[in-house]
Amino acid sequence: MKKMLEFKAHDGEIEDIALGPDNKVVTAGRDFQCCVWQQDQLVTGLRWHENLPGIPDKAYRYQACRDSGTFLGLGTVTGSVAIHIAFSLQRLYYVKEAHGIVVTDVAFVPESRPGRELLGGHEAALLSVAVDSRCKLHLLPTRRSLPVWLLLLLCAGLIVATILLLQLAFPGFL
């Protein structure tokens, strides 16, 4: 093996590391941060005080991370479990103290035939394992979205309504 790259990712020890799509790397460190890296460049990161207001950043720490390509699954030393969108780190799912104590690992259910059976109608499934000797399955509900044609129709309706209101308010506007 030959070292290809070296950089300082965290202040202190790295708790977990996961490889993601497009040569991205996710790290969870003892410095209370979770970071997404492209080569040696920080793409984005999570900090407790920014992403979970009201929760003291010294009481919690990211312990385990996994990146499915679409989602980032995280476990903490206090037993909490979260799922974020991988590219923006927007939180979609969070269970405070899902386990009684430290989450030691998380893993997404693969999108194979047996995995799809576990998913049912859900968008993703994350397994979490903790020191409390429990394994839990977390299901991310499918997010609802508007069809593009409906969104375009609503935008066109808003434009027409705005023009009509402007014409009523200011006769001779057009």
UniProtKB/TrEMBL annotation:
Major site of localization recorded for this protein: endoplasmic reticulum
Name of the protein this chain belongs to: PREB protein
Any Gene Ontology CC annotation: endoplasmic reticulum membrane
Pfam families in UniProt: WD40
Entry keywords, A to Z: Endoplasmic reticulum, ER-Golgi transport, Membrane, Protein transport, Repeat, Transmembrane, Transmembrane helix, Transport, WD repeat
Mode of membrane association: Single-pass membrane protein
InterPro entries, alphabetized: Sec12-like (IPR045260), WD40/YVTN_repeat-like_dom_sf (IPR015943), WD40_repeat_dom_sf (IPR036322), WD40_rpt (IPR001680)
TM stretches of this protein: 146-170
Organism: Hypocryptadius cinnamomeus
Subcellular location: Endoplasmic reticulum membrane
Classification via Gene3D superfamilies: YVTN repeat-like/Quinoprotein amine dehydrogenase
GO biological process: endoplasmic reticulum to Golgi vesicle-mediated transport; protein transport; regulation of COPII vesicle coating
One function term, GO molecular function aspect: guanyl-nucleotide exchange factor activity
